[in-house]
Design brief:
α9 packs across α12 and α11 runs antiparallel to α12. By secondary structure, this protein is α/β, with parallel strands linked by helices. Helices cover 43% and strands 17% of the residues.
């Protein structure tokens, strides 16, 4: 089935690079993530018009993309797990589960996804959550081999919940590199990694991964800063981005996608991408 996996990877990556717009945030059960995603049909229409390489969704919404006519729409990346680490308050029990434990890939196969994505959470003092993620990945990896489905693993190193009123990204390069190595050891075909605090350290993540690395966007930031950081990370060897709130929570998602696509596919600078965005 390895050839089948290559076919799907080719559908996801355009010329070896990919901008994946993530709108799978409803599965996080965190209300602050849903601003901008109230009208999912409208969001899909707008994103398909903006023409990124891929859109990341969950099974229950994927029909909005896959039932659209035409062959040129973005590829589907399907999230197949869920958990509660994104909530602003720390829960008594932290968990991460597959959305379909019996047949974790069935929805992705039915919806003709180009890739599936699963979390690998590393939270302070939460070893059981980490173990659950490892078990999820091991279960999914077996089916990915069986059905030729590319596996994107999302290693997430987070700070203590007390630091910022919610689990926030820890950009420590050493921690990200270590968790990325584990993701590769478990068989990742693609890794969706947080940016390191200093962009010039990100090449270490890329070298560790030995597979395409897409940069995770995280929370909404100043757009010019997003473009500058994205361009810097591409120079460090990233093969693209997986951005959500910095696109769908913006007043003009189409223009943001245009700028990011120029960075990903044309090696545009942050300044040039921002100029494209300002054209509206």
């Amino acid at each position: 089935m390895k050839n089948n996996r290559k076919v799907r990877i080719n559908r996801l990556f355009n010329g070896g690079r990919c901008l994946d717009v993530a709108i799978d945030h409803g599965v996080c059960n965190e209300p602050s993530f849903l601003s901008g995603l109230e009208d999912m049909e409208g969001v899909i229409r707008a994103l398909v018009g903006a023409a990124p390489d891929a859109i990341q969704m969950n099974y229950g919404q994927a029909d909005l993309l896959q039932e659209l006519p035409g062959k040129d729409k973005p590829a589907l990346v399907m999230r197949i797990d869920m958990g509660n680490p994104y909530n602003r308050t720390r829960h008594r029990d932290m968990w991460a589960v597959l959305q379909n434990e019996a047949e974790p890939l069935i929805g992705a196969l039915q919806m003709d996804a180009a890739c599936v994505v699963v979390n690998l959470f590393m939270l302070p003092d939460e070893p059981d959550l980490f173990r659950q993620c490892v078990q999820n990945i091991a279960r999914v990896r077996a089916d990915c081999e069986k059905y030729g489905m590319p596996l994107m693993i999302e290693p997430l190193v987070m700070q203590p919940v007390t630091e910022h009123g919610g689990y926030m990204v820890d950009g420590d390069a050493e921690k990200i590199v270590t968790l990325t190595r584990l993701a590769r050891e478990m068989g990742a075909d693609i890794i969706k990694a947080d940016p390191t605090t200093h962009a010039e350290d990100f090449h270490r993540v890329v070298e560790t991964a030995r597979c395409p690395v897409l940069v995770r966007g995280g929370g909404k930031e100043d757009l010019r800063a997003v473009f500058d950081k994205s361009a810097a990370l591409m120079k460090q060897g990233a093969m693209g981005m997986v951005y959500g709130r910095n696109i769908y929570q913006h007043s003009n998602p189409n223009a943001v996608v245009r700028g990011l696509m120029a960075i990903v596919h044309e090696n545009a600078s942050g300044e040039d991408a921002f100029a494209l965005y300002r054209q509206g």
